[in-house]
Design brief:
heterotrimer; A mainly alpha (549); B mainly alpha (128); C mainly alpha (332); B: 128 residues; 2 domains; two-stranded antiparallel ribbon; 57% helix; elongated; C: 332 residues; mainly alpha; Fumarate Reductase Cytochrome B subunit; 14 helices; 2 strands
């Protein structure tokens, strides 16, 4: 970024949890650089048949809304109140006890009172009161009712794109009010009049067209996988098979696309490839369903369904028995809580059974998709893998529970089991920052853009700060996670707040530790970094290499 | 309506609980006839004004107990009777209102009051 | 400002009840008509709200998991925090409703020099909330000595428990002190914490003040010279529940104030946030089992959407796939 970024000291020093204004009813928002996202370009909206495609920017005075934008939104709200009991109920029963207030990472990192989950919800609730409740119509501001105006809409845009739908507030709410639900629906409403952000609509359009967020075409996808296969061969001496679009394979494997085009995701991909080869798994990748992630979740329920449809469709076409899913956070929220309802029933698939251990995955018997942590932990439990933990001795990991697997699935112990099996060292972060109380990376739900960097650093402060604690106290030097967005956004976050801690995936650790039949002696991990104990021979190794060359 | 069965069951439970006094009255058959108190066997006036007595007798007895037990102050100057009476539940009060069951208990039962007087004192009638 | 507005509302209500009974002598209105209207409004309004909520669909199973899912038999499943079965859900809901489980988790985040974020336990809100709600329930149940003849079995037990310390006569109830203290804490908390003050609406203060007024008027009636003759009170109450209402002459103004505040609470209840009492049972993040991949959930308003089918996709990319030697459904 060309402009000077606020320093960590300046940022932290400026945080004040005391609201500055007297009332929140005033919707005026200052669109400060670094705290908002660019608008979606018209061609992507057109491609997805979305309303009001146009060129605009949130800092424009005129957002080029349709004339009847207000009716559209209010009508949209009316429809959604009937469609979502969550929305209807959450609009009605909040008592403003404030338990959620300091649970939001954006509030903790910004001190902006409208980032308290209760107030984020009130932004929508105030409009609901004005137009849908008698008290609000009569009593107005005294009961917190507000007219829907352009300024309110701009305020919605600002704050509903400062929520990563992480659901931490919902854990603490005595009624389970889930701001993720409210944010999702508020974003749906804004989408009705063409208010959306590029970082959601562009990946969605790409994914719709090519099958993955980056718009990588099938041959490019095949190249990426091929490249990884070659790289793995260089590291281990073993040429693995990574079939794509193979009909009749037993298992379809779906991972977030970042795994094959971004770093450090890539090392996790190497881990998958090594694992599948070692256990002799009969599986296939798909170039059509080449994305497990689903930015539709951050756009609208309809878009989520449109993008998700490919997974079952491809499983059916390829005639696989069941589906295995890679390390990804929001992908797993969609798969666990939505996919079966959206695009099921998957009655053409079989109840998942591990071909290696014979374990039946009872908990996935209807959706027929198994999380790779469930799969791998079962392999380890049944002693199907030979692991050399010492190959990870140069890493001292901690584990970042990603929001969606922890609070939308309950996948908490499986990853820890695998980490402990692969690493000699493992230190947990403080208990209020992990498991169901985990803090978001600050960049989820489509907010991981460069233009939003300051807000990401703010939102990521609680996570980074907990990491810093174990880095300083215990010497932790890698933050493991099972989420593609985490792997993409945590490295800059940690570089900002706690330099010296890397980010990695659990299957990267597994790939390091996995003893493969016929492998050459490993001197480096999957990143090409020397193993612990090998360092002293580093010079010798380098000499050998140069001699070879 | 969605989840109709569960919602109806929940509402029924709510209504049954909320309407408890009504069906209890119907089932119990009593709508609360006023308690009739036995007349005092002697005298025109109580030791204080009788309306006031209704309101504060518990406080008066409490006071008496403390004075008698802790200060050995056993006599009460009654304005209404213009005489001095013993501060005694069993001898003075039950001297005129001879039946605990027909006097004290009537109101107390009606209002579910269970005074702890009788934790120590005995009803002289029962004692006999 | 919002608090002052709420206080003003309470004063107006107080004046209405005093003027209505003491000056205008509308004892029948305040003793019979308003209470009947309030109860009718409460029951009809409550049922209406629940049905309105029930009319909204639950399209997805969006349980918030606060513990380990049920996966492998060798991983301990948290059956109350991420319930897998209906019984688990019932247990989870019981913990929420009876003991405010989620509020018990409450923490307080503090930013220290460094920056260093620390999270401390913060149980005061939970404690005050629990004390307030349970006190209110016990007080309500104790009042059945007025509404039922003979008084139901639970009344004397609750009275002797609640009056365990036998302080004063009439005995001071623990709940009388507890409810006032808890409400006072909740009020001070709203005023004192800048975040809370910022989010609090007039209606938040109003609910607190209203219930506080009910509690205080009741306590004054029991323990001060502003007594009501409780034989008369029971006569009025029994008249109401048996639909033969009559208003005994000698009922004092304090009682009418108390009764009027109670009537306002009942009438206001269904139209306010107080409906969280019914709402919590319907909260989709709490009342559904985390068995999503095991048991299919059906969306009642599901509709077909436009997707990008494999055929369309292959048509678009056939040439490049062919060149890359990837398998195809159709060669051209």
């Amino acid at each position: 970024m060309a402009e000077k970024m606020i320093t960590p000291e300046e940022l932290a020093g400026g945080i004040d949890y005391k609201p500055k204004k007297k009332t929140w009813l005033d919707p005026t928002v200052e669109f400060k650089k670094g705290t908002w996202n660019y608008a979606a370009p018209p061609q992507n909206l057109e491609y997805l048949d979305l309303p009001n495609p146009r060129k605009w920017s949130p800092i424009d005075e005129d957002w080029k809304l349709p004339d009847n934008w207000k009716e559209i939104i209010l009508e949209g709200l009316r429809v959604r109140i009937k469609r979502f009991r969550s929305l209807q109920l959450f609009m009605d029963i909040c008592v403003r006890c404030g338990a959620c207030a300091d649970k939001c990472h954006f509030f903790i990192g910004s001190g902006d009172p409208k980032n308290m989950p209760v107030l984020r919800a009130e932004l929508l609730r105030s409009v609901y009161r004005k137009d849908f409740t008698t008290a609000g119509k009569i009593m107005g501001k005294m009961v917190g009712a507000r007219e829907l105006t352009v300024d309110v809409l701009k305020e919605w845009f600002y704050y509903f794109y400062q929520c990563t739908e992480c659901r931490r507030c919902s854990v603490f709410c005595p009624y389970g009010i889930d701001t993720a639900e409210i944010t999702m629906i508020a974003r749906e409403l804004m989408n009705l009049v063409g208010i959306n952000i590029e970082w959601i609509c562009t990946p969605a359009a790409n994914c719709f067209r090519t099958g993955n967020h980056l718009g990588i075409q099938p041959h490019g996808f095949a190249d990426s996988i091929e490249f990884a296969v070659d790289e793995l061969e260089e590291l281990t001496g073993i040429k693995v098979d990574a079939p794509i679009n193979k009909k009749g394979a037993e298992i379809l494997f779906v991972a977030p696309s970042a795994d094959y085009f971004a770093s450090p995701h890539y090392y996790t991909l190497l881990g998958y490839l090594a694992l599948f080869h070692e256990i002799g798994l009969d599986y296939t990748w798909s170039a059509y369903a080449s994305e497990g992630g689903n930015f539709g979740l951050f756009h609208s329920h309809e878009m989520m369904k449109r993008l998700n449809a490919k997974i079952y469709a491809e499983a059916k076409r390829l005639g696989v028995k069941w589906i295995l899913g890679g390390e990804c956070g929001h992908m797993w929220r969609v798969i666990h809580q939505y996919m079966d309802t959206l695009n099921g029933p998957a009655d053409f698939l079989e109840e998942p059974v591990s071909p290696i251990t014979g374990t039946k995955f009872e908990n996935a018997k209807n959706t027929k998709m198994v999380h790779i942590m469930e799969f791998t932990s079962d392999l380890i439990r049944n002693n199907k893998l030979k692991l050399d933990k010492s190959r990870n001795d140069h890493w001292h990991p901690t584990f970042h529970d990603s929001c969606n697997p922890s609070r939308g699935m309950g996948l908490i112990e499986e990853p820890r089991y695998v980490i402990r099996a692969c690493c000699n060292q493992f230190t947990e972060m403080p208990e209020n920052t992990i498991k169901e109380q985990t803090f978001c990376c600050g960049s989820g739900a489509g907010l991981g853009t460069d233009e939003n960097m300051e807000m990401r650093f703010r939102g990521g402060l609680p996570r980074a700060n907990a990491t810093k604690f174990v880095h300083d106290c215990d010497g932790v030097n890698i933050l493991l996670c099972i989420c593609a967005i985490d792997k993409a956004t945590l490295p800059p976050l940690l570089e900002y707040w706690v330099p010296g801690v890397e980010v990695g995936g659990i299957h990267e650790m597994l790939g390091n530790a996995l003893i493969m039949k016929g492998e050459k002696e490993r001197t480096t991990d999957l990143r090409g970094e020397p193993l612990a104990g090998v360092e002293s021979e580093e010079e010798k190794t380098e000499e050998e290499v140069s001699e070879d060359a | 309506m969605h989840n109709t069965g569960k919602v109806i069951i929940g509402l029924l439970i709510f209504l049954v609980i909320a309407a408890f006094p009504i069906w209890y009255a119907v089932a119990g058959g009593k709508t609360g006839d006023l308690p009739e108190l036995e007349k005092a066997v002697k005298g025109e006036n109580c030791v204080i004004d009788s309306v006031e007595m209704r309101e504060i007798h518990m406080a008066l007895l409490d006071e008496w107990r403390d004075e008698v037990v802790r200060e050995d102050d056993r006599w009460y100057k009654s304005m209404t009777l213009d005489s001095t009476i013993e501060k005694s539940l069993t001898r003075s009060c039950l001297g005129c209102h001879t039946s605990k069951a027909d006097f004290c208990d009537r109101c107390h039962n009606y209002l579910a009051v269970s005074p702890y007087c009788w934790d120590c004192h005995v009803d002289p009638k029962e004692f006999k | 400002m919002s608090a002052l507005f709420a206080l003003l509302m309470i004063i107006i209500l107080l004046l209405i009840s005093i003027i209505g009974t003491e000056v205008l002598g509308l004892n029948y209105v305040f003793g019979v008509i308003i209470p009947y209207a309030a109860i009718a409004l409460f029951l009809v309004g409550f049922v209406y709200r629940i049905i309105r909520w029930a009319n909204s669909a639950v399209p997805f199973k969006i349980t918030t998991t606060c513990g380990q899912q049920k996966s492998h038999p060798w991983i301990k499943h948290s059956s109350l925090e991420a319930p897998h079965s209906t019984w688990g859900v019932i247990g989870r809901m019981a913990l929420e409703v009876l003991f405010f489980r989620s509020l018990f988790r409450n923490t307080k985040a503090d930013l220290k020099e460094g920056p260093r974020l620390v999270y401390g336990p913060s149980k005061w809100l939970w404690a005050a909330g629990l004390v307030f709600h349970w006190s209110f329930l016990i007080i309500l149940l104790r009042h059945f000595r007025f509404f039922a003849e003979p008084a139901p079995f639970f009344v004397s037990g609750l009275q002797s428990l609640d009056g365990f310390f036998q302080i004063g006569l009439p005995i001071f109830y623990i709940t009388s002190v507890a409810i006032v203290a808890a409400l006072a804490f909740l009020f001070v908390r709203r005023l004192n914490d800048p975040k809370l003050r910022y989010i609090s609406l007039g209606s938040d203060y109003f609910a607190l003040f209203l219930i506080l007024s009910i509690a205080i008027s009741g306590i004054l009636m029991r323990h001060t010279g502003l007594r009501a003759d409780i034989v008369d009170v029971k006569q009025l109450a029994m008249g109401l529940v048996s639909f033969h209402p009559n208003v005994p002459e000698s009922i004092g103004v304090m009682f009418f104030i108390h009764l009027f505040f109670v009537s306002v609470l009942f009438g206001y209840f269904p139209f306010s946030k107080l409906m969280h009492m019914g709402g919590i049972f319907m909260s989709p993040t709490r009342n559904m089992a985390n068995n999503n991949r095991e048991k299919r959930h059906v969306n009642p308003w599901d509709y077909p959407v436009k997707t990008h089918t494999y055929e369309e996709w292959e048509d678009e990319f056939r040439d490049v796939m062919k060149a890359a030697g990837m398998p195809l459904e159709k060669e051209k």
